[in-house]
Design a protein that fits this description.
Blueprint (H helix, E strand, L loop, with lengths): L1 H35 L8 E3 L7 H10 L5 E8 L2 E7 L7 E4 L14 E4 L14 E4 L2 E9 L11 E4 L15 E5 L3 H12 L4 E3 L9 H32 L11 H33 L5 H22 L10
Parallel strand pairs: 3-8, 5-7
Antiparallel strand pairs: 1-9, 1-10, 2-3, 2-9, 4-7, 5-8, 6-7
Helix pairs in contact: 1-4, 1-5, 4-6, 5-6
């Protein structure tokens, strides 16, 4: 009996690891897509600002609006962007140096972060490299890129501030992208600043929550996880048939049956939670995972449902109604 339980424990650990592997593969794909969007999230918004307001004037208005957590890119073309941000910036894969800090967005001296494929364009008389733009040499503070081929490798990022914007230009000559985790609450503020109500999402949405595009991209992962949950439910059934004492506990009274059922459910819950934690630890160690706390919380919710299923599955043939 003990061997059967150990085998089921190992199978539950394996299911958890397999589920985390599926999530990890999807996370890697999402990360690659984000790099192709210059590290902006899929919730970033494109504002169609067709007016003559300058980038610097726009940044001054944004600064006055007291927004605290955002990243704005003014894309001149697919290979060059001005950047202004506050709060914690999304992580980018650095090959050398650093990415922008809050100090860079206050300084009157712009600095540059370049994609690794643009290194040949830099001027490097000594250890410090410079990017030349209209006769002006700008210090390069970082190099971004990955081992994969992404558009990030081809990009030039230049910092801006309310005090200075290199080669300032009107909004109708750039594409404005805003990545703000509180975009819904701040939408009207941005619309007022950019003088436009026209906008679209970097990743198109057609539903209020995740969008059809998200569902399409993650359908495979969701299907695999659903299958794994169904298999786990099957294991719950098998476990309910092999727990200790089933074959000897027939004809129980109401009180004893309830105690028996509760005790067996507690045993199963212990095995399930421990197996899930072990599987989660293995997956966290070996796989690329984001939002680990969300994944762990979801895993515990599934465990809770499986425990409820097990409680229901405990055979009632052990219960003998009393007259």
């Amino acid at each position: 009996m003990r061997l059967k339980k150990i085998i089921l424990d190992c199978l539950l650990v394996g299911l958890t690891v397999l589920g985390l592997l599926t999530i990890s593969q999807r996370a890697k794909t999402n990360y690659s897509q984000r790099l192709n969007h210059n590290s902006l999230s899929e919730n970033a918004v494109i504002f169609n600002a067709k007016n003559q307001q300058s980038i610097q004037k726009t940044i001054q208005k944004i600064d006055a609006a007291k927004l605290t957590h955002f990243q704005i890119q003014f894309n001149v073309n697919s290979r060059f962007s001005y950047v202004y941000a506050k709060g914690k910036l999304s992580s980018v894969p650095l090959k050398d140096g650093r990415f922008f800090t809050s100090y860079d967005f206050k300084s009157q001296v712009p600095v540059v972060v370049v994609g690794q494929s643009r290194l040949s364009e830099l001027y490097k008389p000594a250890s410090q490299a410079y990017y030349q733009d209209h006769g002006r040499y700008l210090s390069v503070i970082g190099v971004v890129g990955t081992n994969q081929t992404t558009t990030l490798d081809q990009h030039i990022f230049v910092s801006t501030s309310p005090e200075f914007v290199l080669n300032d230009r009107p909004l109708n000559q750039v594409t404005v992208l805003v990545d703000d985790p509180q975009m819904r609450a701040h939408m009207k503020t941005y619309q007022k600043i950019f003088k436009t109500t026209k906008h679209s999402y970097l990743t198109p949405k057609s539903t209020p929550l995740v969008g059809v595009n998200w569902l399409r991209q993650n359908a495979g992962m969701m299907a695999v996880i659903a299958v794994l949950v169904i298999i786990a439910a099957g294991f719950a059934y098998l476990f309910s048939q092999v727990v200790n004492g089933y074959q000897a506990q027939k004809g129980l009274s109401t009180g004893l049956y309830r105690k028996f059922r509760t005790a067996q459910t507690q045993i199963f819950a212990l095995h399930l939670v421990v197996s899930s934690i072990i599987g989660f630890a293995i997956g966290s160690w070996f796989f690329y995972l984001t939002a680990r706390m969300v994944i762990f919380a979801s895993l515990m919710v599934i465990d809770f449902l499986l425990v409820g299923l097990f409680y229901y599955l405990v055979p009632k043939r052990y219960f003998q109604k009393t007259v």
